[in-house]
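QA checklist item 7 of 12: single-chain prediction sanity check.
[x] sequence parsed
[x] length recorded as 106
[x] structure emitted
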Amino acid sequence: SSGINAEYGMTTPEESSITHEQNKFVFKDPDTSRNPAFLEYSVSDSVFDMLHTFVPPAMRGRGVAGALVKVGLKHAASRNLKVRLTCWYTADYVKKYGSMGTKIVK
């Protein structure tokens, strides 16, 4: 997680606890659950497609999903990738908080 923290300048504990696995950003909470929260994505033709977010019930309401989306957007922006918001939550997040400088595509 220190790599992502350093790379993206994270500010909240949730953001700094996110790790990058293959095609996934993952948040593991040592206090609550063995099941991690995650944002799944794919990349093709310079498009970063946010496919699916999941947050276990024990972690909900703490901003974990938002932190995952924010990290995903920063990741895409740092690589000059366009973003597709396939997951409904990512579309809601961007509508509320903006796209962090990324270009959104359909």
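[x] summary fact logged: The helical segments are 2-8, 13-16, 64-78, 88-97.
[ ] second reviewer sign-off
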